[in-house]
């Protein structure tokens, strides 16, 4: 299974959620004893089967050292259960959401684990991905890459935290529940020009008016690089008037299925941002006034991600 | 080592599945250790095979060749099976099965690709270690096995994600240390059972005592220093000349060899019920039931293919059911598969009851053999006036005179009348020659006689226990006189030093002594310290064997009974104190425990509060001042630490963090939990500073040459 938008809830899904709610512990709190589960691995089952065999060997050959080794393996099994349990108990996980996620790629979730004692070989997994981390000096980090096939608001899956340390006989695990949501932008699609008829005039700008000090967020294409190489201070070229007519990216002007249109618009937004253009966005039920800069780009992409396109029937031109 | 410390996971290759070189090396070294446990007992070419397999895997990894194909693996297994078949001549014995297990364990490395395979290899390794205990359970074997198991565990820890070798070994040490007490308790408490079904046994050569004696055969036992059994006495210890360990009586003579007649053979031959010859139980059925048993001893018996059990004189009672034979010897129900303990009370003297086989059985001689011996016996009988006592004395006296010699390497006798050949031609022999001749001469004149095979003597250790070895094997004669069997030992007449000091004291024919044990430490008996060392080692070994290896059902029952008795004694002592005292005591203990759990934490906090953060920092400052880094006048503690940080090398970050934590503790308004966390962090940082601070060049003794880098 992969990440999916909240879908109609079947009874099976409801049952699963019910149990998940009972079994998992909330993210961000130290893992409590009650929500920590121990299961033998296949290797552990083999180990357990080996012990009676060795005891029988010891009995039938009246061999004391075989007895001793069998008992030692048993005692090791017991100790391993304790060590695995202690390795997981009290671990606190936190999520760090990725800054931008496009559909069709992967979301690289930052996972930050903290605990008082050092922990070894913790495995964090969710549907579709897994990552390993150690906690040393109270802190450990890793990145969990999850595939995100579709755009929109995605509810992140329950995280499973488990460890097989120290011998691989026992798996201690817990589920970490949370209601973090991730906004996935559409998959950017660079399309030949015919797919989109741009509304608006183009990129001509006003007359050059002078230089001003660079402010973070300024369009990188208007940096005065020559000035910078000469004086060492960053400056932005200022123009007399903003572009005479701004660019409109219009949903209705695109062709194809709704998701494809959104993808094309996403690719456009990225291209125009890179080019430093000023652009507006017209979506069904939403209009974003022309603007530029990083904040505008985010707003546009967010709008694309959240866009609820009308049904196909309404689209017929 | 540097390769072990690579930051990336050293266990797996970059693809995340296949095992890397480090892990394969770990597995191979584990195989080498397991092989070393077996190497003295298995064909040496298995070691060559292990190296070949490892070399193949190395090349494969280096050159990135494809994995070993099915054909190669099949060829390897078939080759192994064939080689073992040739070496062991079939797969009947236990040795060949062990070889097969070991070989498959070694070959498994060929197809070990991922984590799961590696775990399987380790598991087979553990089984193979257990099987090694079939060869030997001595202390050295146990130590070697411990090292091997630790190594195997360590490779499992690697597989589970250890960061480096240090980490893996620390975890292994924790695991072993924490599990050892539980293992010990289980070892002591787990019920010990008799074998549930019979298993293929190790082919043990019947090296020990034989149940037939032919004078003139090679004296095999004096050539070996193998241990026959060990004895600890409770109470009286017999003097060396009284240490006659009876094992078999040989009552059938065919003119060449004396053979033992087993109870079933006797019953069949004489037409008597078997129950007259053997009694199974814990007490003897012959002689006076309350007959005296001055010696109580604990035997630690070595495994042997025959079920013999030695006893000092006639056995009276034992601690586990055994077969008491009518000739006053003891036999186990079955051969011993492992070293085991047997507690025995015995009379120390030959049995005082008649053998149900009858006097006639004990005077039978083949009619037409050894004519000259018979003639001599008849002449001596006439000369002694038909008085058995005088006759026996004169025979013994005759052996004590020249030209009879006692030697450990006598000329071989091959003829039909061996006693004649010995008495009249070679006149040189050891105990079985003399015992055989003596018994023949006694029987010739109608005195019931039999040869007893067993051991005589034993090496006394400083802690009192005796070790009886193969070269202590001995044969002597028992004659039926005046309602009891009497021991007659012609060897005592001709070579008293053999009886008093053991076979090593016999000068003549020394080359045969220990001839099969060229490296025996017993050869160094004349060198004082070496002998001391050997005795000390054997004492340790004896305690190990008695305490750990000999820990079978009886020993466990005894120990648990002792523990229960101690517990019961405590309980009764407690009960004797009376109800009120008990209640008072219980209340006190409970209250104390409550106070302790509640109070200790508070006490600890109080102490911590007294010796707060400022106190800790002051101590660090004083410590720094002792290292030549005092605070400047008027400098705050945090400023002091911060000033030192840039030149403090590894301890620098810790110094900065400590200063920061201290200031926040003192000035920031913090919640209690935050404060606790911060305090812990401060303590940790302070420890790190002490660990990581480099010595200032030239300030400390011997610090000039090393620099700050070296100290870190």
How does this structure look, described?
The complex is a heterodimer of chains A (317) and B (712). With 317 residues, chain A is of the alpha+beta class. Chain A folds into three domains: 22-184, no CATH class; 186-204 and 243-317, no CATH class; 206-241, no CATH class. Chain A has helices at 11-23, 42-60, 64-88, 225-231, 258-275, 294-306, 312-315; strands at residues 25-26, 37-40, 92-96, 106-114, 119-126, 129-135, 139-147, 152-155, 159-163, 170-177, 181-184, 208-213, 235-239, 247-250, 279-283, 286-291. In chain A, the strands form five sheets. In chain A, strands 1, 2, 5, 6, 9 and 10 form a six-stranded mixed β-sheet that branches. In chain A, strands 3-4-7 form a three-stranded antiparallel β-sheet, with no helix packed on it. The radius of gyration of chain A is 29 Å and the shape is elongated. The model of chain A is unreliable at 1-6 and 199-204 (pLDDT under 50). Chain B has 712 residues and is α+β, with helices and mostly antiparallel strands. Among the domains of chain B are: 21-186, no CATH class; 611-711, no CATH class. Chain B is built from 23 helices and 19 strands. In chain B, strands 2, 6, 7, 8, 10, 11, 12, 16 and 17 form a nine-stranded antiparallel β-sheet that branches. In chain B, helix 5 packs antiparallel against helix 6 (139-159) and helix 6 (139-159) crosses helix 7. Mean pLDDT of chain B is 83; it is low at 1-8 and 697-712. At the A-B interface, helix 2 and helix 3 of A face helix 5, helix 6 and helix 7 of B.
